[in-house]
Amino acid sequence: ESDVREIDGVWLNELSRHNTDLRSLNISVTNLKHVGLTDLSRLAANCRTLASLKLHGIDLEDLSEILKRTTALEELGGVSIGSSMDMEVGNNVKLPHTLTSLLALFYMGMDEGDDAINSKVQPIARRLRRLDLQYSCLTVDGHCRLLSQCANLQSLEVLNAVGDEGLEMIALSCKQLQYLRAERGDIDVQNGFVTQRGLMAVASNCNMLQYIGVYVSDINNAALSTIAANCPNLSDFRLVLLDDEKEASDYPLDNGIRDLMKGCPNLRRLALYLRHGFLTDRGLQDIGLYGRKLEWALFGLLGESDEGLKLFANGCPSLKKLEIRDCVYRSGHCRICLENGRSQVCMGSRI
């Protein structure tokens, strides 16, 4: 969260001329503008051990010579693909086959990014272990085409525009997946949305999952029970039920949450942001009763009364931090969670 005051690009020039052992260069969140491509090219040529390169929205076609010079590059991030990729020079740019992680891939064209993204990523898709498609502007079909080739994927970040069809493709093709995050995006008819249908498919087939963080348009007890039955290694579960006009199919979710807490005994982090009435005081009691290893919890729109928080606080002996948002408790009673001096209550932040 530090600010970087940029004067010029001399630092990168000096680094490229004098360093031969650099393994990682990350300027992805600095918004630096004086990044010389010649300097990057020299750096890639001189540092044969360069394994990670995270930039800030530099066009892939501008990195052509740089990527040719790298011999050990495994992680690439902050690269953009735009409408100029239709030009001959853009079509000749290839991602290195040494890559196993492709992060923050931006699509800057005017239309959907399906063809542009797939043409670049599919040739190396089978090698990828980590993939971030949140900025790729892919449709449901575009996601499915690409993810069908990612047999060795272990970590995936997408928007919920991946749709249930996209999650079903993950279930078929990405059996080694350990980390899945589906952030909230701008949903329209073309792009789709995530519900219990997609979650059940993933949980039933990706049994190595350790992290699930999803924004869903609908969820039911059966989906939570399916996750509990098939993902015994789950240690971090975060679920947000989007507030829209669609009527949810099944609530309250007490039975599913109970199954989740019992079936995933290694849960250390839990975030639930639902709607009023979707988890009763009994559901909060079960989280406390079975959350023996829970260290961090976030509750949004949960419970019915102060009693629910009290029942929760009677359990969770390992709890270190509790975040509460939009719940019905009277603020003075929240301090019951602090009586033993081991927890803190925080309002805010995202899941």
Question: Nutshell version of this structure?
Answer:
The chain is 30% helix and 19% strand.
Chain-wise SSE layout:
Layout: H1 10-18, E1 24-26, H2 37-46, E2 52-59, H3 64-69, E3 75-81, H4 88-91, E4 101-103, E5 106-107, H5 114-121, E6 130-132, H6 140-147, E7 155-159, H7 163-173, E8 179-183, H8 196-205, E9 211-216, H9 221-230, E10 236-241, H10 254-263, E11 269-273, H11 281-290, E12 296-300, H12 306-313, E13 321-325, E14 344-346
Parallel strand pairs: 1-2, 2-3, 3-4, 3-5, 4-6, 6-7, 7-8, 8-9, 9-10, 10-11, 11-12, 12-13, 13-14
Task: Walk me through this protein's architecture.
With 351 residues, this protein is α/β, with parallel strands linked by helices. The protein has 12 helices and 14 strands. The protein has helices at 10-18, 37-46, 64-69, 88-91, 114-121, 140-147, 163-173, 196-205, 221-230, 254-263, 281-290, 306-313, and strands at 24-26, 52-59, 75-81, 101-103, 106-107, 130-132, 155-159, 179-183, 211-216, 236-241, 269-273, 296-300, 321-325, 344-346. Strands 1, 2, 3, 4, 5, 6, 7, 8, 9, 10, 11, 12, 13 and 14 form a 14-stranded parallel β-sheet that branches. Helix 10 (254-263) links the parallel strand 10 and strand 11. Helix 7 (163-173) packs parallel to helix 8 (196-205), helix 10 (254-263) packs parallel to helix 11 (281-290) and helix 11 (281-290) runs parallel beside helix 12 (306-313). The longest helix has 11 residues, at 163-173. The radius of gyration is 23 Å and the shape is elongated. One of its GO terms (cellular component) is SCF ubiquitin ligase complex. One of its GO terms (biological process) is SCF-dependent proteasomal ubiquitin-dependent protein catabolic process. InterPro entries: LRR_dom_sf (IPR032675).
